[in-house]
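User: Here's a chain of 439 residues. Predict its fold as tokens.
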Amino acid sequence: MLLSRRKFLGLAGTTALVATCSPNALPDHPLFNKSLGTPPTDSLKGLQEFLPKRDQLLGYPINMNIPPKEFFTWRKQLFNVGLNQFGFNNVGNPYDHSHIPFNTHHFEKELIERFGLIYGFSPQNTWGFLSNSGTDSNMHGIYIGRTLLKSRSGITPKIYFTQEAHYSIQILRNLLNLDWVIVETNADGSMDTNDLSQQLLANPNHPALVVATIGTTFKGAIDSIDDIQTKLNNRESYLHLDAALFGGYLPHTSFAADLLHETTQATKIKSTRYDSIAVSCHKFFGFPSPAGLFITTQSIFEDFQLQFEKIHDPEYILQVPGTITCSRDAAKPAEFHYFSSANAFSKQVDDAKKMLDNANYLLTEMRNHYAHLNPTRANNRSNTIYFKRPNDAVVNRYSLATMGLTAGSLRVPYAHIVVMPHVNKHILDTFLADLSEKT
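Assistant: Prediction complete.
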């Protein structure tokens, strides 16, 4: 039986409770100051000041373009039907029936299937989800690889990657308690697969969990998927791709085949090139919130699921979730779904072309006018140009990432520019002019 408000307030002790919680009874403390209820105008102005400065961000792989108005129309439509108004939750496997109906699993499943086609996964053999970030996607790839390799061999694998890999890989190998093997790199920063072969021979009794980087963090180098697979021949192994930035735009260029999951050999037999891939949503695409794609095969997921169900009791949500993270953001998959539309893919083709054209332009101009800075581009797929570090004024104005690179016995400070879709020739010309005045 429901209580009336009058009866509720008449319950013993309730009146005293209401008096205590009354705004007039709040203690004299800044946290309880009633003025906190007013809009923080100073903070809002501080945020607004970033808007005209966003084009000056050149040192990190973030697309600072504001998404098209259609994206915000789509976001408003989602809000109008309830998303972000109450507790939607994408807990669980998006490919399985959810006992909790307030989710966006249908959007999540569809965008994974669409991007799966982009990366050459078989439509009948694709599984994945939208993660919290590229690091989250890498964590799932490494965790699935570790779980499967240990279940098959009874031995915990060793993880192989290079010093050029993203720093998240070092964090994740520590988190997952994996012994690591650092593989040497070629001059361009890509994995030296001959050294990988030697390292594999030095660790014959352990399965190999290899993380290949498709676009290294500072130099923009690309580890060769096929050469790695050749070295892994007849070895119990799992190959995960960290394609955080390059995975966004390469499928929309003439280099799309680089990331295809399957390839057809001369014998017309299809072979699998890698096991899983991680791509960031907030880098090339310009999604205004950190998120990541994680894509693998349904068959790999089913093998993993058999092991995963042994370590937890799935009764509470009536399924084996398949993800390390339990409650997951339901707004992001629905919102990012816009970026898998035909119009969005068309724009991504244009953005990818302009981005690589502008990277060519910057490299040419720097070689013509600033050869002493040793401007370098790792490969023709890269949107990253690195060069000897200019002075602090230039580094700070353009938020350039800096790092010491080894040259012989010396450690030389370098900086890089990541040419993202918002970085047009006008911005680059302004940078080049500033470089002339302040170098």
